[in-house]
Write a structure and sequence with these properties.
Blueprint: H1 8-15, E1 23-29, E2 39-40, H2 48-51, E3 60-61, E4 66-67, E5 77-82, E6 93-98, E7 112-119, H3 121-125, E8 129-130, E9 135-143, E10 154-174, E11 177-187, E12 190-196, E13 207-213, E14 220-226, E15 230-238, E16 244-250, E17 260-264, E18 273-284, E19 294-303, H4 307-375
Antiparallel strand pairs: 1-19, 2-3, 4-7, 5-6, 6-19, 7-18, 8-18, 9-15, 9-19, 10-11, 10-12, 10-18, 12-13, 13-14, 15-16, 16-17
Length: 376
């Protein structure tokens, strides 16, 4: 009998879950169809990653679903636009992401910097999702024609997840043993869209590819050529064994097992929880070079073992309904009070006008009486 050894990578692939599997959690994500959709930029941006400056209040979408991250600022252009041709059936609106002044506000570092748009999952759900519940997310991304890309070879756009793991560090050693410290360690696996500009050395024509961050050392590595621009579908899933699974395909159709790019333990970490997903816009930070105009549509969260999350959403929605009802009642009270005040003011104005008219009539009558007495 022959013994077959299964490699860890192969075992990971077998346990991979296609992003979009399970229950869609519509309390997180967006379709950008709301006519009142808006993002409030509270400049200057945060840049804690570069200079340890967290600038509050941070930028926030008015629907509460997106925010500026604390480490880096949000893209300078976050704008709802008409869905580019070939998008999801029924989609009329999507979101344009583009940045100019990345990095530290007011400082042109003249290197590649990035800005982030982050799904506000932690606040919407009140915390992260354990990977044992098998969370995933998907998004459609429109890649513009090559002539619209920033003329630069390198990373241009990121589709990223935020995860945490448990790390243990030995702090001291002594005669009576060692002291160690256990902490929650955040990390940010994802996919980068890289561009090769035909103006770069040894590059014959414009092209692009997908790279994954990262391998067991956290290094980026190329996994797929982008042979056509236009709409693509991306997704990432997080499974109970702590691994991260990456998927991508051209077009807007739902992902399938055939779209699996790879599965990894980035940085050799085993994920414990999934915090959120976000998007990076990269550019050469010289104050003049706009990043490539990418458009995203229908970013969505899914959870396989969703009972806990669904109960949280139910409570949050009930609380939202109460808050909205209370706000509406308060607005109605204010409107009624304003109406009463306006009616009271109008009545007083009318009485004042009537009094003036009566006074004028009396003065006229008196004047007429005097005139008549003189002519007798």
């Amino acid at each position: 009998m022959t013994n077959l050894t299964v490699s860890p990578a192969h075992a990971q692939r077998n346990r991979a879950v296609v992003p979009g599997t399970g229950t869609k959690i519509d309390y997180v994500g967006d379709d950008f169809e709301d006519e009142g959709w808006n993002f409030v930029h509270n400049h200057p941006k945060s840049s804690r990653e570069q200079d340890e400056r967290l600038r509050s209040p941070r930028g926030m979408a008015t629907n509460g679903r997106w925010n500026e991250g604390p480490e880096r600022g949000q893209p300078d252009q976050i704008q709802v636009v008409d869905t580019p041709a070939g998008g999801l059936p029924g989609s009329e609106k999507a979101l344009l992401l583009r940045t100019l002044r990345s990095g530290i506000p007011g400082y042109n570092s003249r290197d590649v910097q990035q800005d982030d748009l982050i799904a506000n999952l932690p606040n919407r759900l009140g915390g992260s999702i354990p990977v044992g519940e098998t969370p995933s997310f998907t998004v459609r991304v429109f890649l513009p024609p090559a002539e619209q890309w920033e003329n630069r070879s390198g990373p241009h756009f990121g589709i990223r997840g935020s995860a945490t793991t448990i790390t243990t560090e030995v702090k001291s050693r002594g005669l009576f043993g060692s002291r160690s410290e256990t902490t929650n360690e955040p990390y940010w696996p994802g996919m980068w869209i890289h561009f090769r500009s035909e103006t770069s050395r040894k590059t014959e024509k414009d092209s692009a590819y997908i790279a994954i961050r990262g391998d067991h050392m956290g290094r980026d590595y190329r996994v797929k050529e982008i042979e056509q621009f236009g709409w693509w579908t991306f997704g990432m899933s997080f499974t109970g064994d702590g691994s991260v699974h990456y998927y991508a395909k051209p077009g807007v159709e739902d992902l399938t097992a055939a779209d699996h790019l790879d599965s990894k333990y980035p940085y050799s970490y085993h994920a414990r929880s999934f915090r959120t997903f976000f998007f990076n816009s990269c550019n050469f930070n010289d104050g003049r070079s706009w990043s490539t105009p990418f458009v995203i549509d229908d970013p969505a969260l899914f959870v396989v073992n969703s009972r806990r999350v669904e109960s949280i959403v139910a409570r949050r929605k009930a609380s939202d309904e109460k808050r909205i009802a209370a706000k509406k009642q308060m607005e109605e009270k204010r409107a009624a009070a304003k109406q009463r005040a306006q009616e009271k003011w109008a009545a007083a104005k009318a009485r004042q006008q009537q009094s003036r008219q009566q006074g004028a009539a009396q003065q006229q009558q008196t004047a007429n009486g005097r005139g008549n007495s003189r002519t007798r």
